[in-house]
Amino acid sequence: MDQLTRTRIPTPFSVGSVNCYQLTGNGVTVVDPGPATDEAYEVVADSLATDGYEIAEIDRILITHPHMDHFGQASRLVEASGADVVAHEHAVDRLADPIAHFKREQAYFRPFLRSMGMPTDAVDTVLELPEPYTEYQAPVTVTDPVADGDTVDAGVTLECVSTPGHVPGSVSFLAAAEDAMFTGDHVLPDITPNPLLTVAPDATDERTRSLPAYIEALETVLELEATVGYGGHGEPMSDLHGRVRETIDHHEERKEHVAELVADAEPVTAYAIMKEMFPELPATEMFSGMSEVIGHLDLLADEDRVRITERDGVDHYELLEPTDG
Ligand SMILES: [Zn+2]
Ligand SMILES: [Zn+2]
């Protein structure tokens, strides 16, 4: 793609650097400006300077999803440039007030994790562990909320494709004329993103069904014509559909493994399955462990392969016998 620059911005997180893309075909467009650190600011400034631009000249900032390694310094760039901010409509509230979102999550997941069989002391530890990381993200106002099918003129036309699952409000940008797609963390070359459970974006008091949403959004990408994938981390993907299929296959295998564990132990709680799958999991990783197991149980429930019965406020899963014919 002409007039496209990829910049690797260091982050303080275990994922390593995050990709920031700059397009200069219609003014200056920045996709995912990176976390709110002085280093990230300087890296973006240096990268723009290489192309002959300054931060003050940024016209629009596109945010693929509301995770701080991707959007954290957006508001600082807006202050310096007056740039428009484009993000999915389901990301608007979370971007405007990330801390309120964090608190909503904590309140929701305390009773929910109990209902999944997690002991109270473990729930307390898991929910007290994460910090809001206020130093790496600043609230940002989305000026241009987008939904499926909306377009952005970045020199090349970018079509917005809603790709929830990794997180609600994830959007990918299809550059059909270039046979390419900016995928954020929806599709990544080296890791399969864990669709973490979170609270629904519409402020109803419900959790997301993250993994079923994620698989559906992966299948959406297979219907689009895009060979090259520009992800939020790692090198560009030269076979986007191939990588999507690998990711779907990975989850299919995991789902069958979870089905076997349910069959071996039924009736069983999600927490017991997580302990069986990941016996050594440290408390810091338990929320993603629970997200993974519950995601696969959601998939099995959608296929009518499990029965869920509540006992003393705790959900127990049983595998239904496969019916022939
Ligand atoms: Zn992410
Ligand atoms: Zn990321």
UniProtKB/TrEMBL annotation:
The keyword Hydrolase applies. It comes from the Archaea. GO terms for molecular function: hydrolase activity. Pfam families: Lactamase_B. Residues 17-233 form the Metallo-beta-lactamase domain. Keywords: Hydrolase. InterPro entries: Metallo-B-lactamas (IPR001279), RibonucZ/Hydroxyglut_hydro (IPR036866), Sec-metab_biosynth-thioest (IPR050662), WH-like_DNA-bd_sf (IPR036388). The keyword Hydrolase applies. This is MBL fold metallo-hydrolase. It comes from Salinadaptatus halalkaliphilus.
